[in-house]
Amino acid sequence: MQKINLLGMTLTDYSLREAIGITDRFLGSGSLNTILFISAKILVGAGVLAEQKEWIRDADLIIWSNAEIAKQAGIKAKDRIREVEDQDYIKEVLQRLGREKEPLYLLAESEEDLEKLEFDLRLLREDLNIAGSGIIGGAPEEWDDEANQINTLAPTAIISWLQFDRQGRLIERMKKILNADIWLGLDPQMVLGSRKEPFLKKVLSKWYHHLFQRQLLEYHANEKGQTEESENAGEEITEEYDTESE
Question: Whole-model pTM?
């Protein structure tokens, strides 16, 4: 376990063993626990939007989407980087869910995305029990119908493949009313299994990593500047006090 400070957020990075142990406790807990996969693009958004930063803070467990973002976050242990690079967490969770034939519910923004999501998940675990699926549109009033459908099926896990802003609002609205154990909020930038990453997605991923690195540097520079201003102000007060004492 390692505490990490990113853009004013204190996050906890767990080893694979720790994260799986936490997830096992979530299963059968009687309440919905959210597990968010975090990418450079998501952190760039959180760096400028307080709402998105809160969604990350409120998650019950954070998982890095790829090894590069884990390195940028300050993870240095080679074994830990390899766990992220090999997508060991999602593989282990899907193995558990598939082995026990636990019912799953998939969420995406289009029929095409649902098909891609199911295809990618089955690359990692072929015998998954996908009990239902739904398309999430932009109108929040439509989400209640989806919640009713989910609660009727009572899946063990919800797996979503949604843009982060929509997913964050969806979780915020529905977390307390859904009958499921875990919600795996995948990052749409992720490429699951051995499927080759599309060229455009690879280019965009590099761009967002660049933006995040610049954002980190600016954040630390501002933080350093504020610290120096505070120290200078303290010195001025001390000097004024010494002068008055004389």
Answer: 0.85
